[in-house]
Write a structure and sequence with these properties.
Four copies of one chain form a homotetramer.
Chain A (H helix, E strand, L loop, with lengths): L3 E9 L4 H11 L3 E10 L4 E9 L8 H14 L2 E6 L4 E7 L4 H11 L5 E8 L5 H6 L4 E3 L7 H14 L4 E4 L8 H6 L4 E5 L11 H8 L3 E8 L9 E8 L6 H24 L3 E4 L2 E4 L5
Parallel strand pairs in A: 5-6, 5-8, 6-7, 8-9
Antiparallel strand pairs in A: 1-3, 1-4, 2-3, 9-10, 10-11, 12-13
Chain lengths: 287, 287, 287, 287
């Protein structure tokens, strides 16, 4: 794939945004590979994803950046730019359940996820062989009621050392601090084993069984200080029946969790997600 | 279709239930058209649906009934029998939204629902023309804070007069009393415009929009004294995106509500549902 | 809803399309309510849907149209414009199955479909009461092997008289001539009771039963001279099992047909569909 | 899990089957863990899955077997018995695509599939590291137009040596001979990358793209001499749009293939599938 940059924009809706932004890049000779917009008529916000073919150019090009910043200032745009030639470095945090870890490692190796995975961290040692089977370093950081803050510091240090851009909680059964959630805002994705906002908190499948629901689901979301209240990126469900025991629900649920988390991580890495308040805009995956 | 009876059974699980029950009917020469069982291994309960070909026989036949009651006593069975030759009489309660009412009336007329619909009741007069278009009497029983108990009495009287066996709340926006729910236990089905237990209560689509969910759903359940906590019969969902306004969610939701309510009413009328505590066993629709 | 126009564009992909087209409308002071593009990188084609707020303006405004045609010529655009203030006039053709007819009539009446339905045509008299129940004129045009061309002429005459813009085959069991399909190209939608390209032709549910498939589906498509080969607008499926008889498959299928046809007709009426060869681009339904 | 046996039965439907079969086991003191029946009213066939708790008993117990065979003879039952304590030995055949192989190996290791996988066979050497990563022997048997029969002989020899009970074609891109299909009838499962009967043969995603379908699917089926015509065990689909390139369809399809194949293999291994002509009865997965 040729090198490209993706620009994500959000601002208040106003006349002429598409014209002004697309013309800026057209006049400088960039080829627009993809251009998607969304206007939230209720809130009056505008969102845009632009994918530009860099061809032979370098980025950031100080003068182009400078000019676009001027336009952005005049239109009050919030914008970020992402070079597709520099894959994100992702850390996966797990506890004892291996299914999401396996799934992400296989997809990364099969080039379904544009990222590197230089690090798996766990509060248990159980999944060491899974990570090592894929040649990924595994850091075992045990945790107890007393050592919670220290363990989180160790996690931070490892994330810094490995220059991690995205942290994925792939069935990590510990609650991270609000401060951690704040510092990694928009770069911390969790998979919840329930169809949020139903079944927040633990034991979601047991509670689904007890409630007698006819479908179960899973939810991938950005983590915020409010547990299970972060912006939802992706959800899915499967039909279940009265015949399914809690154990069977867990098994069915694992397949939903795998898929939902993989789709959410892929959308994030392809820079198709804009966070807006406690919601997300997820652009389609055409290009 | 030939005449048949459906027997629904629930009891504590014990050895030999299938043998004893199936042999009882076999020895009396009945042809078993369908036989489904379910054992809830967690709770230790047994559920069965038997469909017997009546051929030329009459039912209830006092001597057969008497004999089966003896078997039932010895095994501590709870059982009910339903003659498929006597279609249930169904009343539909509505407020202003016509989509579920239309759907049920069309399906009944097209022989998808084995029932008669002799009565539509509403607290508004808006849907009179819909009912009358299908030749169904429409009773307008207005309600105010002061007249709530009286209106409910009027409903009861109408249900009695029309010998109603099943009451369907097809987007009826009033809460019935606990006493009413108790008296019509197992014969009162509601459609809720949310994927329970998420979004209990009112304004489910607006709240789904605000939460930024990626799927919306609907739930058909038996009504109990605890609002939105009754045994779930059927649920379904549709995928939505950030592009869908609350109005669009409502529109998508209407299609889910229609289907989910129709499936639940059909399952009930075909005697495929056994209520067990606050859950249901829903047998499949083969025969 | 305020008056708006929708412009559908297709052309060869080239640099600057979004910039040039959006700037044209921005400079003339139009507010862009929605703007979606799609580039088919394989075929090298560009597709766009623009929705413009007319506010107090009249359309067509000769000078604006003229100017835009100049731009269109220079970029080799194919474009059409649709005034949302003039609802399409739709004719429904049916045979004996009422489910899709009921569904479209109910949705139109409930304002889910931006159209008028001034005419139902059938080769049988069976569904007269359904149409008349909704106050829609019903034309019974019987057909025999000998009278096929004459009957089609009668249909054409009725469509002309009623100034019909879209013809919907809602389980119309006759094959229209290639010439008819050609003359109504892009304005003739059929619902097929199979998941195309599987089960082309008749008896799709019986054949699905015999093949032992685990899901059945339906397909809405534009009609072309090649039967069941026209551009697909929408498809959906439902899970079935070995327990489902052909009759049960038909019943389940009716619900799929209803939904799929309604979604396709809605997409067409909202001018969200561009036909490109024997495929379609279906823009999302945000605005 | 306690030891249990599963008995699969098929025969012509007749009065008293459930009574006679269930009574046979009840009188011998067996606890029935699960009992599911299906009557195909069209064809007049009866199917049954019985799961019996062995507790301390041994199986086969010559006298019980003998007695049941007498009953089977009198009722003209076809029956097979499967000891859940002896996991099936499964060989996986692959070519170059690793996604289904990874998925089956992970699920087997995570105890989602009651089997051993002692052997992976491929006509290419590409996936050796995947098998070896899981400690599974990998046999590379190259194939050319000239060596096709010899290669198949080598496969047979390996299957014999490893006492393989089930062969899974996990995107194996070679056609096996009719004789092979015949000899392994009912023990040979293939995953097809299309929603059969649509898109039989190769390049299914490319052809789905060209046809412009709005959903793509995959099908797991038993292999018979007629390519892509074998009894279907499981199918599933995902929604796609005009934005999805053939490459994107392949990626989405891989997730469907993974799930569909895993579900089919699981159903087979749990002895929930009865083949009947060119169709299957798939019992539910309760117990």
């Amino acid at each position: 794939m040729a090198r490209a940059v993706i620009i994500l924009i959000q601002c208040r809706d106003q006349k002429g945004l598409v014209s002004k932004i697309s013309t800026f890049w057209y006049e400088r000779g960039f080829n627009v590979l993809d251009c998607q917009q969304h206007v939230d008529n209720g809130a009056g916000n505008f969102y845009m994803r632009l994918k530009l073919d860099l061809e032979e150019r370098a980025w950031p090009d100080a003068s182009t950046t400078n000019d676009f910043q001027k336009l952005a200032d005049s239109l009050h745009l919030n914008w970020t730019v992402h070079d597709t030639g520099t894959p994100e470095r992702v850390a996966i945090l797990v506890s004892k359940a291996p299914h999401c870890l396996y799934d992400l490692l296989v997809r990364q190796r099969e080039n379904e996820l544009p990222c590197m995975i230089p690090l798996v961290i766990s509060n248990h040692d159980d999944l060491r062989s899974v990570a090592e089977q894929f040649g990924v370093p595994y850091e075992h950081l045990p945790i107890s009621a007393d050592t919670k803050p220290q363990q989180e510091s160790q996690i931070r240090k490892l994330l810094d050392t490995h220059r991690i851009g995205l942290v994925v909680l792939a069935r990590y059964m510990q609650v991270l601090s609000s401060r951690f959630a704040g510092d990694y805002a928009g770069r911390l994705i969790n998979i919840h084993h329930g169809f949020l906002p139903a079944f927040q908190g633990g034991n979601a499948y047991q509670r689904a069984y007890e409630r007698g629901v006819k479908m179960i689901g899973a939810t991938a979301h950005y983590v915020t200080a409010d547990l299970d209240e972060g912006p939802i990126i992706e959800q899915d469900v499967e039909r279940v029946t009265h015949e399914d025991s809690p154990k069977e629900l867990s098994r069915i649920g694992r397949d939903i969790e795998r898929l939902v988390l993989a789709r959410a991580v892929k959308a994030h890495l392809e820079r198709r997600v804009i966070i807006s308040g406690h919601k997300t805009v997820v652009f389609s995956s055409g290009v």
